[in-house]
Amino acid sequence: MLISGGVSAAVLLAAVLASSEALKEGECEVCVTFLGKFYKTLQEDKVEMKSDNVEKALLKSCSAAKGKENRFCYYIGATSDAATKMINEVSKPLSYHVPVDKICEKLKKKDSQICELRYDKQVDLSSVDLKKLKVKDLKKILEEWGESCKGCAEKSDFIRKITELMPKYAPAAASSRTDL
Questions:
Q1: Model confidence over 30-86: pLDDT tens digits?
Q2: Distance, CA of 156 to CA of 24 (rounded, Å)
């Protein structure tokens, strides 16, 4: 009787631990999003789902990644300057069609930094008052567009540069703004 009570307690404990390992809503945001898009492109490009093919495609995809996605690639070892190599932890499960959130759960156990990555909140350029943004945020907008502001010393210089480039990079926002 005592043994069966111990076994049931162990089963209950295992069930509780297993449920706590599942990803919560919004957790591993960059991992789930990036690997989801990557898996979708693998299917669209009809890549043969072998581990080495998936790994090559992952390295190619990571070479073009920017921002938080590039940082994710660094953590899994898919960039040239990465110190660790956990690419197999991604490519092998993807080749077996394991769900992306399950892969991210396993990656979280190996390196918790992977699930701490979050995307930056996007600024709604059609309604935001650029004068109220910090210079850091203005620089980030230009950086996202792949532009820089050489010779910009004042906040007004960054605002002027953003309003000049807005029709090119955010035409919908530029047409809806009335202060231009």
A1: 999 999 999 999 999 998 889 899 999 999 999 998 888 999 999 999 998 988 888
A2: 42
Packing angle between helix 100-110 and helix 29-44, nearest 10 degrees?
130
Yes or no: say if 55 and 91 are a contact pair by the CB < 8 Å rule. yes
Cβ burial, residue 12 (10 Å; 0-12/13-18/19+): exposed
Assess contact for 90 and 103: CB atoms under 8 A. yes
Residues with Cβ within 8 Å of residue 140, at least 6 apart in sequence: 120
Residue 109 exposure: Cα atoms within 13 Å on the Cβ side = 10
CA 100 to each of CA 18, 93, 96, 107: distance values in angstroms, whole numbers, following the listed order: 17, 9, 11, 11
Rounded to the nearest 5 percent, the helix, strand and coil shares of the chain are 65, 0, 35
Give the residue from 113, 24, 26, 120 showing the smallest Cα distance to 68.
120
**Per-residue pLDDT tens over the stretch 157-177:** 999 999 898 888 888 877 777
Give phi and psi for 82, each to the nearest 5.
-70, 145
